[in-house]
Amino acid sequence: MAQRKAIISASAMEKLLKKAGAQRVSDDAKEKLAEYLEEQVIKIGEKSLRFAQHAGRKTIKAVDIKEAVK
């Protein structure tokens, strides 16, 4: 099975997990977190886009994201 190219870097995932208190983070944990976060961001983005379009805009604004994550 081919590995996909993550959009969010492994180093960013490591920094976030260490900020959460982890002393060490495995490569597979970094990859899994990146995969999960990317899926969630896409869902939020799609919902945010619908809010923007409903408001007659092409641009997603912070308010759209705020509503999408509620």
Task: Tell me about this structure.
By secondary structure, the protein is mostly helical. It has one domain (10-68): Orthogonal Bundle (Histone, subunit A). 64% of the residues lie in helices and 0% in strands. It has three helices and no strands. The protein has helices spanning 10-19, 27-54, 62-68. It is elongated and about 45 Å long. The protein starts with 9 loop residues before the first helix and ends with a helix.
CATH level-four homologous superfamily name: Histone, subunit A
User: What structural class do helix, strand and pairing data support?
Assistant: mainly alpha
Radius of gyration computed on alpha carbons: 15 Å
Beta content: under 5%
**Which parts are unreliable, with pLDDT below 50 for 5 consecutive residues or more?**
none
Series of secondary-structure elements, N-terminal to C-terminal: HHH
Number of helices: 3
Number of strands: 0
What is the residue-averaged pLDDT? 93
Count of separate structural domains? 1
Remind me, CATH topology? Histone, subunit A
**How would you sum up the global shape?**
elongated
**Could you give the distance between the termini?**
36 Å
Classified by CATH, the class is Mainly Alpha
